[in-house]
Amino acid sequence: MAERRDVMNNKMLDGRAIVVTGAGAGLGHAYARALAEAGARVVASDVNADGVRGVVEEIVAGGGTAIACVGSVADWDSAEELMRTCVKEFGSLDGLVNNAAVQHAASPLDENEARVRRIVEINVLGSLFPAMHAFRIMAAQRRGKILNVTSGAHIGLPGMVAYGTTKGAVASLTYNLALEAAQHGIQVNALAPVAQTAMSPVEDRKDGVTRPRPEQIAPAVVYLMSDASGSLNGQVVRYDGRSLSLLDPPHFRTTRVTEDIATTEGIAQAFDSVLFGTVAPVGLY
């Protein structure tokens, strides 16, 4: 075990070219720095020019390699240019950390069209577009890793209808793209982090766990971008710096009713006699 730790700590991403979206602050900032410290050449992307240039300056000052790309990953052409920039500058695209997102909490009674459209465009299209463009390049290379950043909110949290919906889409992107990826030598997984950031400033969760700092989450990203993660594909990893687990992929339950269900009455009887007994509660906590 000691020997494995030594290997894991010795520039395990040496020479890899990795794009990190939403790298201008918070978790993305921490991911970019940790990847560079592990030897990766990083393309840091964000709409926040000052933030993304700041993280690049930190990486370079620490002896790492990084460049900044300013633009919106929710724009199809900008997302494509981001991936092409990585190939142009570093010769390949070995990884994408699909992190860019925004968050707001609100009751459905208080939502408005502008806020819902914004969160859907940034969180869903801003994950789907980079993943699509990265996938095309990686398929031609016959290698690569895509790590989408989702959230436990997609399981269900009060006040998180819009945000949770977008993160559910990111989880679904992971499952679907992973099925396409395996035949091309690509791995696609997702991380559901728990951390204290500007998006999630509350220090303590309802379950009593103190939210860790972003840099405490970054080791999971380094691992998932490395060869050490092996053949892991299509999985959602939950990590809060203290506990590490996998989310069960969605599936239809094995308990099924197949007889006398052709009418409304038959369906009602099936629920009353069988299916209501298999109902599970929803929600993260």
UniProtKB/TrEMBL annotation:
CDD domains per record: SDR_c
Gene3D superfamilies listed in its UniProt record: NAD(P)-binding Rossmann-like Domain (3.40.50.720)
MF term (GO), any: oxidoreductase activity
Keywords, alphabetical: Oxidoreductase
Superkingdom in the source lineage: Bacteria
UniProt key word Oxidoreductase: yes
Alphabetized InterPro entries for the sequence: NAD(P)-bd_dom_sf, Peroxisomal_Beta-Oxidation, SDR_fam
Pfam families named among the record's database cross-references: adh_short
PANTHER family tied to this protein: DEHYDROGENASES, SHORT CHAIN, SCP2 DOMAIN-CONTAINING PROTEIN
Sequence similarity: Belongs to the short-chain dehydrogenases/reductases (SDR) family.
Record protein name field: Short-chain dehydrogenase
